[in-house]
Amino acid sequence: MKRALTLRTAPVMTAVVLALTATACGSGGPGGGGAGPGKVTVWSLQDTALNPVQKRSVSAFNASAGDTEASIQFFVNDPYKQKLQTALGSPAAPDVFLNWGGGNLSTYVKSGDAADLGSGLSPSFKAKFLPSVMTAGTIDGKSYGVPMEGMQPVALFTNKDVLAAAGVAHPPKTWPELLDAVDRMKAKGVTPIALAGSQPWTELMWLEYLLDRVGGPQVFARIQNGSPGAWKDPALLTALTMIRQLVDRGAFGTNYGSVGQDSGGADALLAKGRAGMELMGSWEYAGQLATAPDFVQQGKLGWTTFPTVPDGKGDPRNVVGNPSNFFSVTAKSRDRAAAVRFITDTVTRPAYVKDLIAIGQVPAIVGIEDELRSGPNADYTTFVYQLVKQAPSFTQSWDQALDPATAQKLLTNLQRVFDKQSTPRQFVTAMEAG
Of 10, 44, 104, 280, which has the fewest beta carbons less than 10 angstroms from its beta carbon? Predict the structure, then answer.
């Protein structure tokens, strides 16, 4: 998932930038490099469910921050990375910016655009987060990012009514059960699996999980490390062949290449009963709660772990996705201490954590099990928390773990496999060519 995406479920506005400032800002335009001491500008992503929480958090910070004032702007997902990359090298850089950790954050660190948070993060503050999540904000042993919203493992979501109507007794637990469910739903005239194939990061989740289940997390670890011949691992070819098996079987229907995720296309197929399943990040619940509340509140939305694969080497408890989205501080910030303070004062604030849980997100905060069980959406939030807590391996989305150029090449070639424009073996050859 390129992007961590929490935010993939939010409807797209016609404007590229939705500049919703939570408070008045003295800066004359986007960015914050010129705002000066006492002004903290924050860049985040447009998200129907999350943005109101963020605006409240900015107001809460401003009410208690003395002479420091924060403002926040929200941007549509796909253009955000380019806009951020351009801004970071200019005086218009924000003070705090959202990123996806891992390889994505590493690019900003290598270019000198992300600040080492250093002593601004105390050991007691770091200890408030699940270690596997905090690690994605750590580069070469230094902290450059802090989790700023819920964990984002990928899960298999279902429309319970569609499955039942097709005679699927329970969500598929194994690969053979998944194929059987596909055949049953196809026979009923519904799309078995919703897929927004116009955006290849949605397709990447299938490859990420299948490779893990077939060969274990060490296969991608070798790819990520640039090991010679890593793309030629037989497990990768097997996983790609299984994807083509789904495509050829009609698992995704016939027009998935024109379905968009930013516009909520795949999510709507699931909620409206036109599809039975969807593989998506954990933000799916919050998105459905915001756009199709009856579907969620009537108990029609289901969720489960990714199926096991016969004779696979990967632990079935492993998860893929994004540990979280992160807040980082730009090297050009004129008040780095205030920017760091905004992050530390916000992300563990009890009201902020409570608000995240209320919209269906699961913060990466240690020891919140009781709060999850007693809060809204308890069944779902507890599922996500335990999924991550118990996972032996949490592989970050490949297009975030890899460098941007390799990630884009990966997405382009994978989309060609899904669209039957190239074979699994041609994918391997293209990626191995570098």
Answer: 44
How far from 58 is each of 218, 352, 401, CA to CA, in Å? 41, 10, 30
Q: Which helix (H) or strand (E) holds 281?
A: strand 275-281
Q: What is the average pLDDT across 18-42?
A: 50
Average pLDDT along the chain: 89
Domain ranges of the chain: 7-151+323-366, 153-321+396-432
Strands 17-18 and 69-75: antiparallel
Q: How many CA atoms lie within 13 A of 352 on its CB side?
A: 24
**Domain boundaries 153-321+396-432, corresponding CATH code:** 3.40.190.10
- Which residues have C-beta within 8 Å of that of residue 421, sequence separation ≥ 6? none
Q: What span, in angstroms and rounded, lies between the C-alpha atoms of 270 and 302?
A: 11
Model confidence at 81, pLDDT cuts 50, 70, 90, reads: confident
Report whether pLDDT(292) > 90. Answer: yes
The CA-to-CA distance between both ends of the chain, in Å, stands at: 21
**Residues 6+ away with beta carbon under 8 Å from 360:** 49, 150, 285, 286, 289, 376, 377, 380, 381
Contacts of 147 (CB under 8 A, 6+ apart): 129, 133, 134, 137, 323, 324, 325, 326, 347, 363, 364
Residue 373 near residue 351, CB atoms below 8 Å: no
Mean predicted confidence (pLDDT) in 141-153: 94
Neighbour count for residue 142 (Cβ, 10 Å): 12
CB-CB contact of 92 with 29 (8 Å): yes
pLDDT value, residue 36 = 60
CATH superfamily of 7-151+323-366: Periplasmic binding protein-like II (3.40.190.10)
pLDDT surpassing 80 at residue 377: yes
What does the alpha-carbon distance between residue 357 and residue 261 come to, in Å, rounded to a whole number?
23
The encoded tokens of residue 227 equal 């090991």
Distance CA 91, CA 193 (A): 46
- The structure tokens 């999980």 sit at 209
* Residue 248 burial (10 A CB sphere; 0-12, 13-18, 19+): exposed
Q: Which amino acid is at 17?
A: V
